[in-house]
Amino acid sequence: MKACLLRAPARIETDPLEFTEVPAPKPGKGELLVRVSACGVCRTDLHVIEGELPPRKSPVIPGHQVVGIVEKQGENASRFAIGARIGIAWLHRTDGVCEYCRSGAENLCDNPTFTGYSVDGGYAEFLVAPEDFVYAIPEAIAEEQAAPLLCAGIIGFRSLRLSGIKPGGRLGFYGFGAAAHVAIQVARHWNVEVYASTRDARHQKLALDLGAAWAGGTLQEPPKKLDAAIVFAPAGEIVPAALQALKKGGMLVLSGIHMSPIPSFRYDLLYQERMIRSVANNTRQDGEDFLRIAAEIPVRTRVQIFPLAEANRALNALKNDAIPGAAVLRVRD
Length: 333
Ligand SMILES: [Zn+2]
Ligand SMILES: [Zn+2]
Fold this sequence. Notes:
Oligomer: single chain
Distance between the termini: 14 Å
Largest sheet: 7 strands, mixed
Helix content: 10-25%
Order of helices and strands: EEEHEEEHEEEHHEHEHEEHEEHEHE
Strand content: 25-35%
Bound molecules: zinc ion
Shape: globular
Mean pLDDT: 97
C-alpha cells in the first residue's frame, strides 16, 4: 500500500515524510482492517514528526483523524459490518485494567497506545484498529468534513467540558486553528460568547465569521473579563496573558499535548481562585457524545484538501498558520 513514512524525527521544513510503498497491515483478534478515505492533519502530527514528543515507534506512519471503510474483520470482530463507514481517533487502545480505566478516566490510562504515534496511523491506504475504539460516522457528513472531528473536534469538546462554561458565559480562545473552529460552533450552540485571541488575521476573520463576539491579537486583552478560556496554541507565553483575562474563580484550560515553557508570573494572576488545568486525550464517551452533538448542530468544518503524497506540504502550511480551519489528506479518489 502507499503510505507516508517517518523514518526519524526531523524539522518539517526538511520534508521528512517519505511517500512510499509498504506492506498493508493485517487485522488481529478484535481488530478491523480499514481502507482510509481521508485523514485529518493535526498539530500533534507535527509534534510527533519534529520529535517534540519522544518517538514510540520508528519508522511510523502518522495520522490519527481517520475516516474510512471497514475492509476486513479480524477474528472475533463483529461490531461493524464490512463496508461500514467508521472513524479512528488518537486513543488506539487502553489496558482496561489500571486504576484510571476502572474509574472512568481511560484518557489517563497508564498503558495506552496512540494512533499514528505508538502504532501506525492514517497517512496510508490502510490501517488496523481495535473495533472497540472505533466510532461510527454518520453518512450525512462528508468524509473530508468528518476527519477533523476525530481529534480537533473531540479534544476541543473535552476542553469545553473541562472549562465548565455555562450558557450565557464568556469564553476565551487562544489560537484559532482546527480545534477552535469546531469548538466555537459548539460554544455558540450552547449560547456562549466567544472571544478569540490569535496572531493571524485570517484566523481572526474566521472566528468572527463563525460568531465570535470579538477577535484580536494573541496577547491583546479581550474587552470583557472571561469566565473561562482555552489555550489551543502550543505557546507557554500565552498562559499569563490568558490568566490576566479571567474573572475571579475563572478556569484556564490548556488543550495541547505539547507546549513551550510557561514563563513565571505574579501570583496575583492566579490568586482569587483562578484555576489552570490541562487536557490529556479523551475517553470514548467524549468521542461518542461529541459526534452526536456535531451531527445535531450540525458542525461544519472548513477544510483544505491535500493529496496523501503531499502530506509534507500540508504540515508545512499548518506550521505557518496558513490553513484557515483544518487540513485534510485525501487518500482515496
Ligand atoms: Zn488503563
Ligand atoms: Zn490530534
